[in-house]
Amino acid sequence: MANICIFAGTTEGRRLVDFLREQDVRITACAATEYGGELIEPADRLTVLTGRLDEPHMEELFGTERFDLVIDATHPYASAVTENLMQACLNTNTEYLRVERGGEGMPQSAVCVSDTAAAVEYLNGAVGNILLTTGSKELADFAAIEDFAERAFARVLPVESSISACREAGLKPSHILAMQGPFSVGMNAAMIKSVNAAYVVTKESGRAGGFEEKALAAMKAGAKLIVIGRPESGALGSSLGETLEYLEKRFGFTARPKVAVVGIGPGAKRGMTIEASEAVTNAECLIGAKRMLEAARPDQTVFEAVSPDAIVGFIREHKELSRFAVLMSGDVGFYSGAKKLIPKLDFCELTVIPGVSSLAYLCAKACVSYEDAVTVSLHGRDGCIVPAVRRNRCVFALVGGGNGAGKLVDELTEAGLDGVSVTVGERLGYDDERITSGTAAELAGRSFDPLSAVLIENRAPESAAAGLPDEAFLRNPSEKPAVPMTKSEVRAVVMSKLRLNADSVVWDIGAGTGSVTVEAALSYPCGRVFAVEKKPEAAELLNENVKKFGLNNVGITEGEAPEVLSDLPAPTHAFIGGSSGNMRGIVSLILDKNPRCRIVAAAISLETVSDLTAIMKETAFAYTEVVCLNVSKARRAGDYDLMIGQNPVYIFTLQK
To answer: Average pLDDT for residues 359-384, to the nearest whole number?
Structure first.
């Protein structure tokens, strides 16, 4: 078991202790004060030593404990402690590692001075109140400022030694701000304004020391920032991230960052749950899209990212950070990027926090139950909405694009659904939220905010069962020959044999009037159907039927198969209703595109049956089935009803 000592008087030191407490290691944490020791949470195999050690006492400790490594995570300005540690490690032949705090970019308006004396000299020539945020040790030196007792306010730790130092320097009790950080930009700015400070004095203590928050707060409050540069320690330091990486390699330790995937609700910060707000507050770093980060209004480190790979890469690279919150819009389980992200976070200690979905929010605003609502996302998709609205009482749609909600309403009216009720929620959860309700006809032609969601109610939905009546389709019975159509009973069997999925890519080859195309597109509105027809008059009729049913998930290709099939997306399912004698070429091209494509073919002529039978025997299909379907329909003849037989249809199902 490794034995490691950390001089842990800083945020970095406590972070290292937190990392090591999860490893198989004995830890000795040294803090200069009792208060510093209290900030280190107790753990098994952890010993906390408090009190200042000089170089001989360090040597005595190192010689007794025989540490494998001593880590110097003291304050950048504690140069004397660093020198003593280096000498003690050298004298006891103990490995030494310095954690060097990274500096921050310096504001152009800041006044940089070399030391405390230089800061005093500058402030003696200035007018206005002063907020000192450099701690209690140098207060006696700052007492040389003219009118110190009247002008100076000191923010120090809430411990007796710090308050005593303030009194000894001559500060009034009302000028002592005793409190423990970390402090946000807002808290710093409020403090600067409360003491009417014209100057804020700080050390260049890096991100972990809250330098960035002080600098931004000074700019916000209109105060001049006085920065005392850090002394040179002479030690070769590593960043916190580099130190953690070294410990992993040196001792075989593993780091498991704590990551919360947080649903923040539909819009502004007030829509977050208490649990989500706590996760955001407790995180060291927030990750998410720009809108999510703006909603959270963070004061801590942020990283703007959406893609799972970018998020995971950032977490892996920034070992100096241990607690992350990844912000997701709405609820993490509802059309959320969390679905792809969560499996990639298997190296983390993961928490998933749900939020209020836009579905629940908009339905509450509209006083509508969503227990039977069908949900559709139109982000990057076409053709889902009209079929879904035709067949369901309640449809909720997430829309994208510049005027996605307006385009959706126009689609409904063009498809003859102008009487359905539509509720559009714009910028849900924000101060400028707007809810608009009316029929599709009443809302047609309007423009809506890109950040919108839509609720549609259809009080007379159509049946979702396959097998639309033949009369539902436009035909050309007066023309000879008539455009062929797969009849209702055959179509129902074909659909059952195809076994389509929600995201299927279907080829309907020899589509005729498009009855199978329409059935497939209506049944699975978020899939895609590509209808292929070589006869111009049939293709024209096919296009009219697609328009009649308001289908935007259908593509029509005019030409002869298999030649025109090459440029189509690979099918997951294919129906061959007509082959013009090219059955072998069509099946071969389908299997080239996707060897696992499920093929259903209908044959009436014996020649086509023969071709399909030969293909079935010659090709190594894992599943084959042949059904001969005989249908008879009643027809009135005088006073009698006669059953009139139709042509038998052979239905082949083939799949590798």
So the answer is: 84
Quick one: 481 and 548 in the same domain? yes
Q: What angle do CA 280, 286, 288 make, to 5 degrees?
A: 115
- In which residue are the tokens 């402030």 written? 123
The continuous run of DSSP H or E covering 81 comes out as: helix 79-91
> Does residue 562 share a domain with residue 429?
no
When pLDDT is averaged across residues 214-230 and rounded to a whole number, the result is: 87
d(CA 352, CA 314): 19
CA distance 24 to 228: 40
CATH number of 301's domain: 3.40.1010.10
Nearest one of 656, 108, 14 to 323, comparing CA atoms:
14
Is residue 654 within 8 Å of 621, Cβ to Cβ? Answer: yes
Q: Kindly state the average pLDDT of the residues 547-567.
A: 91
Given a cut of 90, whether residue 494 has pLDDT beyond it is yes
Report if pTM > 0.70: no
Tokens standing for residue 188:
């710093």
Whether the CB-CB separation of 163 and 180 falls below 8 Å is answered with no
Dihedrals phi, psi of 198, to nearest 5 degrees? -90, -20
Residue in 52, 51, 53, 63 with CA at minimum distance from that of residue 89: 63
Is 147 found in the same domain as 79? no
Q: Write out pLDDT tens, residues 499-547.
A: 999 889 999 999 999 999 999 998 888 789 999 999 999 999 999 999 8
- Structure tokens of 3? 């034995």
HEC string of 552-593? CCEEEEECCCCHHHCCCCCCCEEEECCCCCCHHHHHHHHHHH
Boundary residue ending a domain (309, 334, 356): 356
pLDDT band at 112 (very low <50, low <70, confident <90, very high): confident
Q: Which domain holds residue 70?
A: 2-100+236-240
Report how far apart, in Å, the C-alpha atoms of 390 and of each of 436, 445, 571 are: 22, 21, 26
Given a cut of 80, whether residue 108 has pLDDT beyond it is: no
Is 196 within a domain?
Answer: yes
Neighbours of 568 (CB within 10 A): 17
